[in-house]
Structures are given as C-alpha cells and as structure tokens.
Amino acid sequence: MENKTTISLLALLSGSTAFATLNIGLPNGSTTESWSDLNSTNYTVEDGYNTIGNFDAGWSTAIASDTGTATFDKLAGTNGYPASSSIYNFEDFAPPFSEPGVYFITEASPIAGLETVVFQTDTVFSDPFPQLPVLSYNGGSQELSADLTDTTVGGFNFAGDQSQNLSFQWDLSSVGESITDFVIQWQSPNHTANFQMQLDQGDTFVGVIPEPSHYVLLTSLCAGTLLMLRRKRC
User: pTM to 2 decimals?
Assistant: First the structure.
C-alpha cells in the first residue's frame, strides 16, 4: 500500500553529476544557457518552491539559467517540485497529485536575428509526454512543434534506469519578423525526474539534431522507465 512516508522517501532521487547534452555547433552568432543542480538544496520551500506536501500550482520564483537571461518556471499543476537531485513529478491516484506539472522557459532577450532554438533536457520518465515542448514567440500563442527531435543516453541513473537526453530544435528562419522574445512550454509525464537542461540559440539555422522527428519514440519510450519505482511503491 502507498503512504506519504513511502512517497517522500522514494522522491529522494540519486544521480550522478554528468550532463550528457549533445555538443551543439551552431555557426555564426550563438548562445548557450543551462540549468544544472535542479534540486531541493538549491531551490527550497522558503524560496517559493513546492514540496510533495505543498500543493501550490505554480512557483513564486522562476529559476534563472546558470548564465544568460532565460528562466525556467512552473505554470500549473500540483506536480513538479525540487527533490534531492531533480525536479520531480509524482503521481498519486487521486487529487491533488494527479495534475502533471506544466513548465515553461522564457527568453525575454533572445540573440539578435534569431533563426533557431535548441532545447535539451536530461530526464528519466515512465509515462508518455502529455505535451511535448512547443515554442511561441513575440507574445503570441503559435505553439510551434519542434522541426527536429532526438533521444540519446543521458548522464544520470535512477533506481537502475538510465536517463534520456531529449533534444528539440526549431527552424525559425522563415518567421519573417524579428523575434524579440519566446517561450517554450511542455507538460511532463508523471513519474518524471528532470535533472538538467540546456538552451542554445543561433542566428543561422543549421540542423544540429541528428535525425528527423522522433515523436513516436518520445511518446512510447516509457514501458520500462521507472518500472522499479512503481514496484517499490506497491
């Protein structure tokens, strides 16, 4: 049977400190921002972040990137809180834990002449993504799907499951207007540990993700991931 004590203990994730992102080589002008050490040591309840016992829908404080101006925040959902080494989505079988976290990255000062954005997240997940990352720009609601995606081996291990580095690239070269801001939004599956992220921007579009869209893979790569976690919770 499940209980809150068991839930709290299982939410303490253990992982390495590696960050297995793709090496992005955008030509001409480009920038790289990252979010590392996404955990409860750095982001506490006192700072405005929820825990498993705190059901706030959003965070009161966005998480700034290690360098640059982009921020990472939670828009909605009772899930999504800093655990010992990740932002963790837990699911119970009844409210309030049944609402997956909806996250977004905001870039209010993108690179001049922006033509491409690459977003990567090193994560362990079990359920299909309810919403893959979509990009909107200039205050709009375009919700553009990524043009290229890929899945590679990540740099973390949780309960015997290797993390996956999910990569998404958008081609914005045909937008036809200057991009002054953009937002990337997604909804994480339940039983998800988000360890680290990276955001690359470039003023020239070149496809740096190895293969065309792997959405089928991303939405089905879940059968074995965190199976051990679920067994332990039974």
Answer: 0.81
